[in-house]
UniProtKB/TrEMBL annotation:
Keyword Membrane on entry: yes
Keywords, comma-separated and alphabetical: Membrane, Transmembrane, Transmembrane helix
The organism's place on the tree of life at top rank: Eukaryota
Membrane-spanning parts: 118-137, 206-225, 430-451
Name the record gives this protein: CSC1/OSCA1-like cytosolic domain-containing protein
GO molecular function: calcium-activated cation channel activity
Keyword NAD: no
GO CC field: plasma membrane
Length: 458
């Protein structure tokens, strides 16, 4: 049974759960609504918070074995529409959710938090390796004047307050341009510089730096292997559409017929094609349809506020526009303009090239067989070297070598960006890197200039 998002607004407030994990923001909103006159007069703030808690935020339900499993948003909506409020669900705890449950949100999310935890451990171990140096720098063996006058955050650093002005006849201001406060000229034009009287850096500290750098290099290298292992482990634990699907990144622009792709991939051993999705270079169409849908939802809200439930359910598109024209004519004009744009973009005269192909097979083994058969070097793909294929029949239309990989998770696909080519992505990364370099270099120049002009300003 299809679920209409508009039915959510007809759900009674008591259907939403009000468990012990109610958000603090909702409690504050209730307090304001009770004690501040006019607060939430034009809308039900509590209903909005209830929708946010039960629909927007991810929830978990009891699995019958004392644990919880993630409940999908569409399933939550269906249960609430049917009035099944007796099912025990709850929000995920911010601090006590086990790491194993993060895979319910996708492999990328689980690997990300596992990586954050590993990096925290690596940084902690690196800090402990530096502990002997920190203790040495915080002792009188390094600074005989003591460290009590230094901020506690810097007491374990190389900062030295045991200084002394010494004559330096050969020194010039240019030599001390980066530290102008350590350079001075006496009345008799004798040059003095501020010298540190703290102990010299020992070989032990240098070796310790090398040990920490070596540890970090090995730890980060090992973390990379650990990430791949986790990704494979989570991928095998959770079956998803990507486990049965592949993505073609470089299809011919005119290959828009899904039957042609189905016939091609059905040639492979044991391959039974279930679905074929053709991605088109129609970003403007997708954006226009998204805008139309948002505007249509606003038209329905306006119509619902002025008509009975029965009248609203039987309303046509013309009725929605007529009601909005009286209340919000600008919104009605915007919808009509967007509607005309959509019809123009979807007219039979318009054609759009192919950007990517998604193919879903009946079994995982079929997917792996296709990936194995079409696996060639990146150079052969760029040169369209058909001879690199094990079987000439694996060339699309007999002359195209396809770039094929396992399809990403459906929730990670941005259909508005399917027209982005490899060159476009490369140009964007180069431009972003150049802008970052310019900003960092500009910051360095600014701080250095300020430091030379005014130490306090720097």
């Amino acid at each position: 049974e299809p679920i209409s998002p508009s039915k959510i607004f007809q759900i009674r407030d008591e259907i939403f759960e009000e468990g012990p994990d109610m958000l603090r923001g909702r409690k504050i909103a209730r307090f304001f609504n009770k004690h501040i006159p006019g607060y939430g007069a034009n809308a039900s703030i509590d209903a909005a918070w209830a929708y946010f808690e039960n629909i927007t935020l991810p929830r978990q339900k009891q699995d019958g074995q004392g644990g919880y499993t993630k409940i999908e948003r569409r399933e939550t909506v269906a249960l609430l529409e049917r009035g099944k409020s007796g099912i025990k669900t709850g929000l995920y705890p911010a601090w006590t959710t086990p790491m194993s449950e993060f895979r319910n949100f996708g492999i990328g999310v689980a690997v990300y938090f596992e990586t954050m935890r590993a990096l925290a451990v690596i940084c902690l171990v690196a800090g402990l390796l530096y502990l002997p140096s920190i203790m040495y720098y915080d002792s009188t063996s390094y600074d005989e004047t003591g460290r009590s006058s230094i901020e506690w955050q810097l007491r374990g650093s190389l900062m030295c307050h045991d200084t002394k002005w010494v004559p330096c006849p050969t020194c010039t201001l240019d030599d001390w341009a980066d530290s102008p406060r350590r350079y001075a000229i006496a009345e008799n034009n004798l040059v003095f510089v501020l010298a540190n009287e703290c102990a010299d850096i020992r070989l032990r500290e240098g070796l310790q730096h090398l040990v920490v750098i070596l540890f970090l290099a090995i730890a980060i290298f090992a973390l990379g292997f650990h990430q791949k292992k986790l990704e494979l482990q989570y991928d095998e634990a959770i079956l998803s559409a990507s486990d049965y699907s592949i993505k073609v990144d470089d299809p011919p622009l005119d290959a828009t017929d899904p039957d042609e792709w189905k016939e091609f991939f059905s040639r492979f051993e044991g391959a039974h094609v279930t679905y074929v999705t053709v991605g088109l270079d129609n970003k403007h169409v997708v954006n226009a349809l998204i805008k139309r849908r948002l505007l249509l939802q606003k038209l329905r809200q306006i119509h619902r506020s002025e008509h009975s439930t029965k009248e609203h359910q039987n309303a046509t598109l013309e009725d929605l526009i007529a009601t909005a024209t009286k209340r919000k004519p600008r919104l009605a004009r915007s919808f009509i303009k967007t509607e005309e744009k959509c019809r123009n973009l979807l007219s039979p005269e318009k054609t759009y090239g192919t950007t990517s192909i998604f193919v879903t097979f009946e079994t995982e083994s079929a997917q792996r067989n296709v990936l194995r058969a079409l696996s060639v070097g990146h150079k052969d793909i760029l040169q369209n070297n058909v001879l690199a294929l094990n079987d000439p029949n694996h060339a699309f239309r007999g002359k195209y070598v396809l770039s094929v990989a396992e399809a990403p998770e459906p929730s990670t696909i941005r259909w508005q960006d399917q027209d982005a080519t490899l060159m476009m992505k490369l140009n964007q990364r180069i431009l972003t890197s150049l802008i970052t370099i310019v900003i960092v270099w500009g910051g360095f120049i600014s701080v250095r200039a300020a430091f030379r002009r005014n130490y306090d300003l720097a």
